[in-house]
Amino acid sequence: MKIQFLGTAAAIPSLARNVSALGLRLEQRREWWLFDCGEGTQHRLLRTDLPISQVRRIFLSHMHGDHLYGLPGLMATRGFKGGFEPLDVYGPPGIREFIEKVRSLSGTHFSYPLTITEIPANRGASLIFEDDEYIVHAVQVPHVGVTFSFVIEEKQRAGRFRIEQAQALGLRPGPLFGKLKAGETITLEDGRVIDGRTLVDPPLKGRKLALVFDTSDASGIVELARDADLLVHESTYLESDIDPQQTQDYGHSTAAGAGRLAKKLGAKKLALSHFSLRYEQPDPGLPSIKDLIAEAEREFTPGAVVAAADFMPIEIPRS
After folding, report:
1. Are strands 55-59 and 87-91 parallel, antiparallel or unpaired?
2. Distance (Å, rounded) from C-alpha 273 to C-alpha 127?
3. Which pLDDT score is estimated for 213?
4. Which residues, in sequence order, are CB contacts of 294 under 8 Å at separation 6+?
5. Phi/psi class of residue 240: alpha, beta or left (left: φ > 0; alpha: ψ in -120 to 50)?
6. Would you state the pLDDT for residue 247?
7. Angle, nearest 10°, between helix axes 95-106 and 71-80?
8. Per-position DSSP letters for 180-232, written without gaps between them
9. Which H or E element spans position 98?
10. How far from the centroid of its chain's Cα atoms is residue 3's Cα?
11. What was the pLDDT predicted at 312?
12. Residue ranges of the chain whose pLDDT lies below 70
């Protein structure tokens, strides 16, 4: 499981940072998922190894343009690039109307099956996707308009079957291997009894990723995101630059607030993103991205905080 930042600026792009988008690559799948799709996201993808044709699911946190305006172009390009597999889009109420009106008014034809799921508002947390390997929850958080944070959880996986040990016992691949892999006990023709549990490594704990885009308070994700391997959290301002009332009015978080949430849910690592352009100024006398990291570390754990940059990958290892 690996994420790749495609846009890390708040509201307005700069030469170094585009507006919000993040890719999630999944193990052993010929697909990847996209979270938010600010204007210019498809241009960012051209500089990565994430093929537009292989994006399988798109999750949108809210309907603000810096998180959404890249969607129509990317969806159209996906078909031109050979993306004929189904595409599922998840977003707040209004996302269906947005996509259908753009498609109708522009005469765009999608060459693949499209499913649009509007996430219900005012329910707190919603299970929006589940298969044999992954679960995705959307959690409504305060912002300007209906807005969601996302928690992606990998299910526990069976441990590796130690085939070399089984072969050392004189066993050969076949139906008995399946029973042993399942942890069953078998009796061989020569009378030996073999407990399959002794030939299987311990189960692999699933990984957990929490994504907080725009909000002044993401505490609603704590229970679902507890012990997350990685928390990605918006960090639009320094707490020292803005008073609490302004964070409520603007619907955005500070680096200190991100650090406090990471500590509260017991995250292993915190990645800050969604930075105001004020911290990109070249004047050494002004606050910078380094100050955002320092502020978050004072609330969380020194050395466990990184500032995201466009194209930065973060591998989420198994614990």
Report:
1. parallel
2. 25
3. 95
4. none
5. alpha
6. 67
7. 60
8. HHTT-EEE-TTS-EEEGGGGBPPPBPPPEEEEE-S-S--GGGHHHHTT-SEEE
9. helix 95-106
10. 7
11. 98
12. 244-249
Which domains are delineated in the chain? Answer: 2-157+204-315 (3.60.15.10), 163-199 (no CATH)
Residue count of the chain: 319
Residue in 66, 214, 229, 310 annotated catalytic: 66
Note the pLDDT tens digit of each residue in 185-221: 988 888 899 988 888 888 889 999 999 999 999 999 9
State the Cα angle at 64 between 59 and 65, rounded to 5°.
Answer: 95
The per-residue DSSP string of 154-175 comes to EPPBPPPB-HHHHHHTT--SSH
* Short-list 62, 2, 3, 16, CA closest to 38: 62
pLDDT in the model for residue 248: 67
**How many other CB atoms are found less than 10 A from the CB of residue 145?**
13
66 has catalytic annotation: yes
Token code pair at residue 1: 């499981």
- Using CA atoms, how far apart are residues 265 and 255, in angstroms rounded to an integer? 16
Q: d(Cα 67, Cα 234) in Å, to the nearest integer?
A: 13
C-alpha to C-alpha distances, 176 to 191, 192, 287, nearest whole angstrom: 15, 13, 65
